[in-house]
Amino acid sequence: MAILEDIWDGICNFADYVWCNGDLLAFVILAAIGITAAVYVVTDRIPVHSAFYLALVFFTVGVAYFFLEAEFIGVIQVLVYVGAITILFAFSIMLTRKYILEDDSDE
Questions:
Q1: pLDDT grade for 105, boundaries at 50, 70 and 90
Q2: Please, what are the domains in the chain?
């Protein structure tokens, strides 16, 4: 019975720790989203999906800068990388994909 009480006390202490440190929980969730999206960037077979997963990775990095209290760098990260670079990747993939598909069908 003492083992169950120790386990219950440990769970309650962990719950109290998480409740008092909500920013830690938010950062861990954000990091998990970023790592999962980064894995999808590499493993997804559709290039347009990879470009948008890359945008999600850039966005999570920008939000992580807000956790570090570097708001200016976070805003620049979101504007430049998510707003410009990723959209440039998506447009270039969409524009060149038609020609790649036509070359494959000619053979």
A1: low
A2: 2-106 (1.20.120.1200)
